[in-house]
């Protein structure tokens, strides 16, 4: 007889799938899936790679960002063997959700700032 799975086994499998799941349109509809190896990429709000389902919906693609920008008119340098692969897990994700879904917080998270303007009656605005 085959060994039965315990609750601990189920909890581990669910957590593993949940923290590694990607989503995209596959076959014309939304789908969640696990991509072997993509969890080797780390999170950054300034990623050097892009990821997603191919235009034809048949494969998952992880591509190095080679686009030129205002800051880098010639584009970033090509990757080397020592470069870290960085993707963004969610551009608007606050640290509470990063911790809940992925088990870490980003001390440079731009979503942890709350822009506010304090208005005091009778005060003048300083430029």
What features would you describe in this structure?
With 127 residues, this protein is α+β, with helices and mostly antiparallel strands. The strands form three sheets. It has a two-stranded antiparallel ribbon with strand order 1-2. A two-stranded parallel sheet has the order 3-6. Strands 4-5 form a two-stranded antiparallel ribbon. Strand 1 and strand 2 form a beta hairpin. The termini are far apart. The mean pLDDT is 83.
Oligomeric composition of the shown chains: single chain
Structural class: alpha+beta
Question: Which residues sit in consecutive blocks of at least 5 with pLDDT less than 50?
Answer: none
Q: Report the average pLDDT across residues.
A: 83
- What portion of residues belong to β-strands? 15-25%
Terminal-residue CA separation: 77 Å
| Overall strand count | 6
Strand order of the largest sheet: 1-2
- The total of helices stands at 2
Rg measurement, Å? 21 Å
């Amino acid at each position: 007889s085959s060994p039965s799975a315990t609750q601990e086994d189920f909890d581990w499998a669910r957590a593993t799938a949940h923290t590694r799941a990607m989503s995209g349109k596959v076959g014309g509809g939304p789908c969640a899936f696990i991509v072997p190896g993509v969890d080797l990429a780390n999170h950054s709000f300034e990623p050097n790679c892009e990821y997603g389902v191919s235009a034809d919906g048949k494969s998952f693609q992880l591509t190095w960002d080679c686009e030129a920008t205002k800051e880098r008119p010639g584009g970033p340098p090509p990757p080397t063997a020592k470069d870290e692969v960085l993707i963004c897990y969610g551009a608007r994700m606050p640290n509470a959700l990063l911790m809940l879904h992925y088990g870490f917080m980003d001390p440079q998270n731009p979503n942890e700032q709350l822009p506010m303007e304090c208005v005091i009656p009778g005060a003048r605005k300083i430029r």
